[in-house]
């Protein structure tokens, strides 16, 4: 039996479909993978990549900028205020944002710069692969 997965942001449903596995990173918990039959779980998502391994093969990836993940009865719900599918990420824009955030962090604008750096890095990792 496959997992039924939904990735939702306030604007729209970004992904809805069947998967064999979902991998995500939680705040304070590290990377976690979910397969069919997983125990119920609720966790806060880190700014990172969510990877959905599709039943028919291949995978879908999304950069999530926080949010929550809930697993229950082979259903995985991913709720994020801001999420972007890999196919919609502008790599050049993400690289420029990363460079700008790194420069701001070096100039002492720590909190905002670090958050912007995390978002840009999540976008790039989503497109270029897990690091």
Would you write up a description of this structure?
- The chain is α+β, with helices and mostly antiparallel strands and 131 residues long.
- It has two domains: 3-86, ATP Synthase, domain 1, CATH 2.60.15.10; 90-128, no CATH class.
- The chain contains two helices and nine strands.
- It has helices at 91-106, 110-128; strands at 3-8, 13-26, 30-34, 41-44, 47-54, 59-65, 68-72, 75-79, 83-85.
- Strands 1, 2, 3, 4, 5, 6, 7, 8 and 9 form a nine-stranded mixed β-sheet that branches.
- A hairpin with a 4-residue loop joins β1 (3-8) and β2.
- α1 runs antiparallel to α2.
- 27% of the residues are buried.
Could you give a short description of this structure?
The protein is 27% helix and 44% strand. The radius of gyration is 15 Å and the shape is elongated.
Mean pLDDT, to the nearest integer, reads 90
Task: Tell me what the CATH architecture of the largest domain is.
Answer: Sandwich
* Backbone structural class: alpha+beta
Task: State the shape.
Answer: elongated
**Top CATH class of the largest domain:** Mainly Beta
Topology (elements, then pairings):
Elements: E1 3-8, E2 13-26, E3 30-34, E4 41-44, E5 47-54, E6 59-65, E7 68-72, E8 75-79, E9 83-85, H1 91-106, H2 110-128
Parallel strand pairs: 1-8
Antiparallel strand pairs: 1-2, 2-3, 2-5, 4-7, 5-6, 6-9, 7-8
Helix pairs in contact: 1-2
Which short descriptors sum up this protein?
2 helices, nine-stranded mixed sheet, 27% helix, 2 domains, elongated
């Amino acid at each position: 039996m496959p997992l039924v997965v939904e990735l939702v942001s306030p604007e729209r449903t970004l992904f809805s479909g069947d998967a064999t596995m979902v991998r995500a990173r939680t705040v304070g918990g590290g990377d976690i993978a979910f397969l069919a039959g997983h125990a119920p779980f609720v966790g806060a998502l880190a700014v990172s990549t969510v990877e959905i391994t599709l039943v028919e093969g291949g995978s879908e990836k999304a950069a999530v900028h926080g949010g929550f993940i809930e697993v229950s009865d082979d259903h995985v719900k991913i709720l994020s205020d801001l999420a972007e599918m890999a196919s919609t990420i502008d790599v050049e824009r993400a690289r420029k944002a990363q460079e700008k955030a790194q420069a701001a962090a070096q100039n002492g604008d720590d909190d905002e710069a670090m958050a912007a750096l995390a978002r840009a890095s999540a976008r790039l990792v989503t497109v270029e692969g897990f690091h």
